[in-house]
Write a structure and sequence with these properties.
two-stranded antiparallel ribbon; four-stranded antiparallel β-sheet; 3 domains; 11 helices; alpha+beta; single chain
Length: 310
């Protein structure tokens, strides 16, 4: 079965999924591995934010947490945020000191977690550097994107849809798709489903053009009221029936910021993919033991060739 209709999320790629966790753990990693030590050399008085049992915590550590937590543009919140961050750092440092006294900084699981966090933070920093080298799209590029996607902008609409989900054996899907897409109203669709002895799960969806996955937008925009679009998947189908729609165009000037943001994100994604490909192509990756079997034949072949050459 396919997932319910939802807003698309454009990210840099699967290898960034752990980045948020890595950044969240970075403060803990710093506290466990180098509390009071700040990248070599003694700190001057202006660089020390506080001392906890004699251990120094730097202004850089405080500033890092403030950049993550400070609610931008909320009057009167700055002082409260600083106090909250300082209290959190004190608690964190006290816990880290207690952990070191009990030898937890030498515990294998703790060491492994710290190494994993360090690797993730370094990987994210490298990917961010790849993305930083990009240039902003030109006005001509923005105009071309606007013209190429009328259903997102000049002919944008708001859609009210009925979504029906059914479980169907794969061999029945092609005929079912043809039959359901030939219906012309929700009532006709219901009759066709009953004739197929199918009981759908129904829900109503109100959605704007930009919240429709790009691959579905043009097919949905082409529907007349009452018509259905059938999306098949392994073991089932989703049927999207257009109940009504209303025009809600966006002008070229009004779309500039949105298009620019999208194009920048697309360039970042492509830059990261290309950068990772440049790293992967010459890399020697060998999966050993049970991991070779789990990785599959394609991944095991280079390892086998490498082993044979030794």
């Amino acid at each position: 079965m396919t997932a319910p209709l939802r807003s698309p999320r454009r990210a840099l790629g699967p290898f960034l999924k752990t980045a948020a966790t890595a950044l969240a753990c970075a403060g803990l990693a710093v506290s466990l591995s180098a509390c009071g030590k700040d990248g070599g050399g003694a700190k001057g008085p202006s660089q020390v934010a506080m001392k906890v049992n004699g251990e120094e915590l730097s202004t850089h550590q405080v500033d890092l947490l403030l950049r993550r937590q400070a609610p931008a543009g909320v009057p009167g919140q700055a002082d409260a945020t600083v106090r909250r961050v300082l209290d959190g750092l004190v608690d964190q440092e006290l816990a880290a000191q207690a952990a070191r006294k009990e030898g937890l900084d030498r515990d294998p699981q703790v060491v492994q977690t710290m190494e994993a966090t360090k690797r993730e933070v370094l990987a994210r920093a490298y990917l961010d550097r790849l993305a930083e080298k990009l240039t902003e799209p030109t006005s001509d590029e923005v105009d071309r994107y606007y013209d190429a996607h009328p259903n997102l902008f000049a002919e944008r609409r708001l859609y009210s849809l009925q979504e029906a989900s059914v479980s169907v054996p794969n061999e029945r899907l092609p005929a079912l798709k043809a039959r359901l897409e030939a219906t012309s109203s929700p009532d006709k669709l219901a009759e066709a489903l009953r004739a197929e002895s199918l009981q759908p799960a129904l829900r109503l969806v109100s959605i704007s053009a930009e919240d429709v996955p790009l691959g579905l937008l043009d097919p949905i925009a082409a529907l007349r009221e009452g018509q259905s679009l059938v999306i098949t998947g392994d073991g089932g189908a989703r049927i999207l029936t257009l109940l009504r729609s209303q025009p809600a165009p966006i002008s070229r000037s009004g779309a500039t910021r949105q298009i620019t943001s999208f194009l920048v994100n697309e360039r970042r994604r492509e830059a990261v993919q290309q950068g990772m490909k440049r790293l992967r192509d010459p890399a020697r990756v060998e999966y050993l033991g049970r991991y070779a079997e789990l990785a599959g034949p394609a991944a095991s072949a280079p390892a086998a060739a490498s082993a044979a050459s030794r």
